[in-house]
Amino acid sequence: MTPANSAASASRAPAVQDVADAELQKHRNMANALRALAMDAVQQAKSGHPGLPMGAADIATVLFTQFLKFDATAPDWPDRDRFVLSAGHGSMLLYGLLHLLGYEDITIDEIKRFRQLGSRTAGHPEYGAAAGIETTTGPLGQGLANAVGMAMAERHLAATFGKDAVDHYTYVLAGDGCLMEGISQEAIALAGHLKLSKLIVLFDDNGISIDGPVDLADSTDQLKRFEASGWHVTRVDGHDPSAIAAAIAAAREAPEPALIACRTVIGYGAPNKQGTAGVHGAPLGAEEIAAARGALGWSEDAFDIPCEVRDAWRIAGIRGCKKRKAWEGRIAALDPETRAEFDRRMRGDLPARLDQAFAAYKMALAKEAPALATRASSQNALDVINEVLPETIGGSADLTGSNNTRSRDMAAITPDDFSGRFVHYGVREHGMAAAMNGLALHGGIIPYGGTFLVFSDYCRPSIRLSALMHQRVIYVMTHDSIGLGEDGPTHQPVEHLASLRAMPNLMVMRPADAMETAECWEAALRTGDRPSLLALTRQKVPAVRREFSADNLCMRGAYDLAVPERESDVVIFATGSEVEIALEAKAKLDAAGHPARVVSVPCFELFDEQSPDYQASVLGTEPVRVAIEAAVSMGWERFIGTDGIFIGMHGFGASAPAADLYRHFGITTDAVVTAALARFTEGGA
Amino acid sequence: MTPANSAASASRAPAVQDVADAELQKHRNMANALRALAMDAVQQAKSGHPGLPMGAADIATVLFTQFLKFDATAPDWPDRDRFVLSAGHGSMLLYGLLHLLGYEDITIDEIKRFRQLGSRTAGHPEYGAAAGIETTTGPLGQGLANAVGMAMAERHLAATFGKDAVDHYTYVLAGDGCLMEGISQEAIALAGHLKLSKLIVLFDDNGISIDGPVDLADSTDQLKRFEASGWHVTRVDGHDPSAIAAAIAAAREAPEPALIACRTVIGYGAPNKQGTAGVHGAPLGAEEIAAARGALGWSEDAFDIPCEVRDAWRIAGIRGCKKRKAWEGRIAALDPETRAEFDRRMRGDLPARLDQAFAAYKMALAKEAPALATRASSQNALDVINEVLPETIGGSADLTGSNNTRSRDMAAITPDDFSGRFVHYGVREHGMAAAMNGLALHGGIIPYGGTFLVFSDYCRPSIRLSALMHQRVIYVMTHDSIGLGEDGPTHQPVEHLASLRAMPNLMVMRPADAMETAECWEAALRTGDRPSLLALTRQKVPAVRREFSADNLCMRGAYDLAVPERESDVVIFATGSEVEIALEAKAKLDAAGHPARVVSVPCFELFDEQSPDYQASVLGTEPVRVAIEAAVSMGWERFIGTDGIFIGMHGFGASAPAADLYRHFGITTDAVVTAALARFTEGGA
């Protein structure tokens, strides 16, 4: 079968015959423009993935010219439909679309600089690099799960502000790889359960993966699988524009989320390589590109687009302009208070009343000095926060009572009522984290969600994307050490604090008591451009901060918690539940004639951002330097040097009551005191 | 409904009526023994999960007394059926079974010391703590995916050694949580694709999760979902022993893997708490336990078992003795060479000829000094290894050609032919890693599998379990830095080396050239009691080790690669692709009058295990200390102190050709030389 025949055979289906010839030719030219740009850009970059853009060009053309609600001149229009290219390696499809539709950020020069340093057209779509890129994709399955969050955001905001303000669809283009990743199941099951009827997944069902035919590794009946989770499902010829259009139209009406499996030929149009793994992720080569141009009837030079095709795409690009203006009219007609609130939330600004709420809460804490697990303190903080911040949506991966993420009076979101603000994510940490990215990306919402710290491993790829995309997503990770006790080493994080601190752009915070927990929450909320992770105890800890401070001391990352009257010759750094041990050790060391200073270190990342003078003052020059954290030592050299005393974990934990474990692993006041005093008798100090 | 009624109603089903009354009563007593032990142990520990053991006691009783092939007096019998408690929080079910069946490790004292320090009865089952625990579970979904690997191992070993030697089933008990985790989909799809007909999953379908009814978060039709992946599926009353038995019998005959959804009442027998989330993960309390004893007709004291019930269980425990002896007879009848090879492989010993193979290969490398990407060198090493080590099973998560894990002449395992040694795992990193744990745990196999290093995040929970279980699983992680180039920050690991080095008991190795890659493979294979991870380049690197050394220098973790003739005042530590930069910098520094020593650091963990003298000699005392690694600095203080020069990454990468990225991020020879020389002019040295 030659490519020309192949293209023709797709057009022989009866449904296509019904479309006026001119319309069909126009469609083909528009789709071929996407194919040509993808071939040319990948060839010029000498790397990239032509297979998906060429195979899915028909699907994308139908979606963007007939259904997707957007305005290329106003890419940030809050009520636009969202389009997520979950199969992010097909980035040239998205760049081609954005360029042809007239999005300013993606000029033809950017297309020509595909995958080059400083371009907006990175190998995989990067959120923030150009308007029109709704999320960063590439790690497979993430986009699909982000889209679930976006669709949830739409339903919630529509329930909050009304359909006049928020009423849009979320579309996803996903490939076999996305559907093989486990995260896809979590996303599919959650979307099906919540009946996210305005989520429509277009499955680029080309039967090819990197290793070869998908059936080397998979025999899943995807339609049946989605149906098992309550989805509307259908299958179409992915090169038949009228069939695709009919399927999308039906999907929009379905009361469930919809899967449209579009049978496509990967690399459609490349006569010798289409339909094979060879076209997936490498340039076609000059010869094959020439052959493809012939097969597709595309005579333009590289990167050139015929005027009428360019015009057709530009017209499609402003197709949504009237709808946008009508929407602006509706927003303008809202009562001023609602409108101001809608605008504030979409901007991501915090309300002024949050300041007073935190101040009042911190004053109360200073007075009460409660001894509580920091997870309980976190719930108390949330009682305050959620009262004044209507944009928070909380949740838990089936550990609601353990993570303490459901604040007072917080109603659950249900399939029938999205006005609630708490999500039962199920035992789906990965899907939860990726959905939270989608909630944040959508705008108007600050998502937070809980699981056990050890299970941060289950959602690490999505935490990384929160960080890479600079999204304000707040991870509430409880049971943060051996202090969780009997559940044992499978549930006891030891390496997780270090491994998360290693991740760029993530604030890892481990507060020591109720006051610090409040301050860490405040820091997380006030940091609009990156994610935070709160590591919280299962077990009770005493109040170590008993005085009110208008300043948020935790936002300094590390600070003097207790300074002796005499000059100190020991400094003890500690976090979370181990700050109590540090204070007890200080008392004993003071009494032993070696005054100790205690520094609480709720957040390494924030400390690294302080002025050098401040950092030097906190680090100090005490000859004996101790760090206490019930976790591995990696990263603590920053505070105690390479010859400091580290009291913590040196391997996995064990199953026993928490107090037994602290003793067993030698994380005790006596261990600190003994080690510190030994330095003086050894003459090491 | 009182619990007594509930128990009665389960027995009213017609199928149960057919069972002779005495047999039924015996079954009930045996199941109630499991329930009682679970209630009592959790109560005594003041923590734990009584809900699953009580709910699934009938299922377990049927399986262990009628189907499971094992011999409690020979728990390591290689051809035993495997039983995996994927819902590991129900550990008391397993401990109760092992105790009652007569496994020596689980005495009644161990049951009484449930969840206490040093007991064999940890909160979640821990592999190695007691015979009969086939894998460590607790993190949900892992056991199910381990079992897929075990079932693969069975099929492969049966294809290799014949059914006389290997012919057993693998059973799994999984809960709702296991099935909600994304990893379950990867496992289910892989098992269905491979038609693992001897894998049987018993789904404890109790409709309850921690937050409450499962339908708070999930509406999945699990039977349909499994069917979509080609499984045999059925549903039974999980308290009806004859129905359970009939379903298992049918599942054993089915040509596909089988799911048996067993409708159960969580906490069955606890009159006021059964069927609710309250019974899932907390002691019942003395009052409810007393009520349950009444409802179940169980009059024994805590931890007491009636003699006839104990006898019945003990008889069940040695039910498999004859089968074991018959198997031993068949093994004894094998030709001596086959038998020796079978024994060697089940012991996990390496063949002597591996030494010569490595020596010859290293000699050839010294002669050729090839410039190759280390991923290509890894493939070359595998050509050597797989030739002499028939027990390796390789694979890749759909990146076979990129990870270079398929060696010469390595046939793929297919649903119809398991004699091959390469697995197309599909885009399922997590499922792959967990299946590899299962392959290793089964015995007779050394599994290795590949993906991109950045996607180690997708399988991190399983890597952690490899480490926790001391399993020889080898992770081949290619594309290990910004050196992968244009795919951009979503695909470029920067924090992964540090985050993996933070994990206890995992050897993270980053070889610098073909010789080091060979040595790292040798180290990974020779280390029988923990997993290894090889971080390998996409891009070509020169040979930096050009002389043959009979010693495996990489097994020292770090070693002098280049020592100047004059005394050095600079030391440069580097790994992998950055060793080349270190050597170039050394040449320039030598020429500039500041002789430099270069240390290659293929493995932090192995270096930490060297003698203090050796460590001191490698660390040296040069005043100017530099580390080069295209990753974040965390962990390098060990080598360069807190004021050393670190040349590497300080945030996420970017999309561009590799050479541009190295320049852009300042990881260059000139940057090293400039920074080092500045220390001398600044007087910092």
Number of helices of chain A: 28
- Distance between the amino and carboxyl termini of chain A: 81 Å
Any idea what the CATH superfamily of the largest domain in chain A is called?
Thiamin diphosphate (ThDP)-binding fold, Pyr/PP domains
Strand order of the largest sheet of chain A: 10-9-11-12-14-13
The level of helicity of chain A is 40-55%
* Beta strand % of chain A: 5-15%
Main interface by residue count: A-B, 106 and 105 residues
Oligomer: homodimer
* Mean pLDDT over the full residue set of chain A: 96
Parts with pLDDT < 50 across at least 5 consecutive residues of chain A: 1-11
The CATH class label of the largest domain in chain A is Alpha Beta
Cofactor (chains A, B): thiamine diphosphate; Ca(2+); Mg(2+); Mn(2+)
Family (chains A, B): Belongs to the transketolase family.
Binding site for substrate (chains A, B): 49, 280, 375, 402, 479, 487, 491, 538
Active site (chains A, B): 429
Summarize the structure.
The structure is a homodimer of 685-residue chains. With 685 residues, chain A is α/β, with parallel strands linked by helices. Chain A contains 28 helices and 20 strands.
What keyword list fits this structure?
685 residues; alpha/beta; Rossmann fold; 6-stranded parallel sheet; 13% strand
How does this model look, in words?
2 copies of one chain form a homodimer. Residues 1-11 of chain A have low confidence and may be disordered. Chain A contains 28 helices and 20 strands. Chain A has 685 residues and is α/β, with parallel strands linked by helices. The N and C termini of chain A lie far apart (81 Å). The first copy, chain A, has 3 domains: 19-325, 3-Layer(aba) Sandwich (Rossmann fold); 352-535, Rossmann fold; 557-683, Rossmann fold (3-Layer(aba) Sandwich). In chain A, the strands form 5 sheets. A 6-stranded parallel β-sheet of chain A has the order 10-9-11-12-14-13, sandwiched between helices. At the A-B interface, helix 8, helix 9, helix 10, helix 18 and helix 19 of A face helix 8, helix 9, helix 10, helix 18 and helix 20 of B. Chains A, B: It comes from Kaustia mangrovi.
